[in-house]
Amino acid sequence: MKKILIIILIFSGLLAYAQEEEPSKWEINGYLKYLHTYFILNDFDLQISDQLVHHRLNIKYFAHPNWTVKVDFRNRLFYGENVKLTPTFNEMITNANNDYLDLSLTLWKSSGHVLHSMMDRAFIEYSKDKLEIRLGRQRINWGIQTFWNPHDVFNAYSFTDFDYEERPGSDALLIKYYTGITSSVELAVKAADHIQEGTIAGLWKFNQWNYDFQWLIGYFRDNIVTGIGWAGNIKNAGFKGEWAYYGGLDDQASSFLGSLGVDYVFGNSWYGSLGFMYNSLGSKDDPISNLFDFELSSKNLYPYNSALFVTLGIPVTPLTSANLSIIYSPVKSSPLFLNPGMTFSIASNWDLDLIGQVLFNKTNKYYSPVQALFLRIKYSY
Amino acid sequence: MKDIKFIIFFSFFFSFGSMMYAQLTPQEVIQTAEDKLRGTSSEAIMKMTIVRPKWSREIELQAWSRGEEFSLIKITSPARDKGIVFLKRGKEIWNWQPSIERMIKLPPSMMMQSWMGSDFSNDDLVRQSSLITDFDHKFLPEKLVDDRMCYVIELIPHEDAAVVWGKVIMWIDKKDFLQLKSEFFDEEDYLVNTIYGKEVKLFGRTLLPSKLEVIPEEEEGNKTLIEYMSLTFDTPLEESFFSIQNAKRIK
Questions:
Q1: Contacts A236 to B, Cβ<8 Å
Q2: pLDDT single digits (tens) A247-278
Q3: Res B251: pLDDT
Q4: ipTM value of the model?
Q5: Cα distance from B94 to chain A (closest Cα, Å)?
Q6: Which of B1, B50, B82, B101 to mutate to test the interface with A (most CBs of A within 10 A)?
Q7: What's the pTM?
Q8: How many Cβ atoms are within 10 Å of B113's Cβ, its own excluded?
Q9: Does A266 reach chain B within 8 Å, measured CB to CB?
Q10: Nearest C-alpha of chain A: how many angstroms from B62?
Q11: B2-32 pLDDT tens trace
Q12: Mean pLDDT across the stretch A76-93?
């Protein structure tokens, strides 16, 4: 609690100071979003409506040619039926968004409202020539595939959480050295109290035959992990893959998982992507509700053993685009996830999105237990 | 599809010259214009405006290029897209998304996608290829455009060339090799697009149209404008400038 206040104070001080400085030393941006969610849970005969006002402030300060400081704030006001129905709502979002350090603060809480503020980026970076060293809360984005990223060992994210475009950060130290124009070596360590909860890993990226390749090796929460990934093309289609083996230590289960996909943009600007995912830890018979409550990690990215995915993006007009993602798992309950969406640019820096998430699965019959509809308005600054 | 359209678009504003030749073939006129850019580098700040009858949108960007192989484009406005970078090295393209701090490799076919919702494709902005080898060329009678006497050249694509146009006509200024106008026809010989080069200005020692206007024939009230706020040539840009590291860092 105090930590975050101190940091806010320091930064507001820096901001005031900034106004006298050259503007190029600062980079400030963000957005304000309103998200309305409407959930239909057929099994419980329940309809829930929820609202979220979401403010983001990104601050970057170029303190010195070699030193950069970045702090991003995520301020959210939740209200609606879900907040009322979930007594532990505040604890839930606090836990979901913190890493080793507690950089979050509940500013206001009532029976139907939660105002929550957090920092999901707060780091200092030193860079000189080909070397970059970053310390603090940061996103270490090691995924190379479009949809599922078993190499995302520091901060896995769920694609059902579409509203969190920046994705969570991790409290870590990252050392990166660019060995060439398209190649680098990275080493990262995540903060933890016990080695069993920690992650330390290295990634080697290089380019060969017009392909980006990467090799991951490390220790991930009581597992040894290694894997390869690539991004290249077959003719004019993109071809990407990302695979990893997690060897469980002590009583941990081992897993082998990864994904493979192609994407292509057609002459009429339609975008299509097709892929496959395999997860040896995934279930062959769980129902679809698991999609929202299974424990997500880079070792276990999807609740099912395998999945096929298709994405289609259609620019209807320069201001309107439509997209549809379909994920189907060929397992006993035949879970199907449909994710249609429309985006409208209503003015410069103003966007309106309509998004649906519909789940189907088979128990006695094939039906949809959960449907969600989202309406989002976003102003970027 | 939009591929060649953009190649032509690109050569349109990068083609220039100041030498006079006694007897030029149509290929030489185009080649002269193209040669001026080859092997050199450029740095530009530009604004693109997409105009439709009911709305318009502006995009501002910075662009660096070296020959036809290497380019780097950074979006500086509007706020929602600010900081997005495109890096092209040969046939490979990467896209830096600052919000998720991720470098995404794009499929080559993405090149043909519409650029930020405009009439241009990524390829239009980052690739330039030969107008010489894909077409047959013929001089038409010379014409005056904006008080400048122009070569008028008809370009007919080769059968096997991956060109969507049935025909292109270019108006190239005789004195300074400025491309002042180009018309693009479909395979049925209907006019599809016209590009005008306007407001000729001196950028350093190079005379060029500072504004480009793309007018689609069939869609009343639609156009895309490109305006150069600054443009410099032959600034020393090494190949290593077009690196993954620099794409993330460039300001």
A1: 107-109
A2: 999 888 999 999 999 999 887 778 999 999 99
A3: 79
A4: 0.86
A5: 10
A6: B101
A7: 0.84
A8: 23
A9: yes
A10: 16
A11: 333 343 344 333 333 333 445 788 888 887 7
A12: 88
Quick check: B53 contacting A, CB < 8 Å? no
Here the CATH number for the domain that contains residue B237 is 2.50.20.10
Cβ proximity of A276 and A307 under 8 Å: yes
Domain that holds residue B96: 2-249
**Helix-strand-coil split of chain B, %, nearest 5:** 20, 45, 35
Query: Contact B123/B106 with Cβ under 8 angstroms?
Result: no
Q: Determine contact: A60 vs chain B, CB below 8 A.
A: no
Compare B124 and A381 and report the one with higher pLDDT.
A381
**pLDDT reported for residue B12:** 36
Mean predicted confidence (pLDDT) in A187-213 = 94
Q: Name A20's Cβ contacts closer than 8 Å, sequence gap at least 6.
A: none
A349/B107 Cβ within 8 A: no
Cα(B228)–Cα(B77) distance, integer angstroms:
15
The partner residue sitting opposite B92, judged by closest CB among A24, A210, A263, is: A210
Q: How far apart are CA A79 and CA A57, in angstroms?
A: 21
pLDDT tens per residue across span B79-123: 988 999 999 888 888 999 988 888 999 887 776 555 555 555 544
Classify B205 as helix, strand or coil: coil
CB contact under 8 A, B109 and A178: no
For the residues of A215-276, what is the DSSP string, one character each? EEEEEESSEEEEEEEEEEEETTEEEEEEEEEEEE-TTPPPEEEEEEEEEEE-TTS-EEEEEE
What's the confidence (pLDDT) of residue A367?
87
Number of domains, chain B: 1
- Name the nearest CA neighbour of B207 among B181, B175, B183, B171: B175
Contacts 24+ apart (CB under 8 A), A341-349: A344/A319, A344/A320, A345/A318, A345/A319, A345/A320, A345/B57, A345/B117, A346/A319, A348/B57, A348/B58, A348/B78, A349/A379, A349/A380, A349/A381, A349/B78, A349/B79, A349/B80
User: Is B52 in the A-facing interface, judged by CB distances under 8 Å?
Assistant: yes
- Continuous H helices in B15-78: 26-35
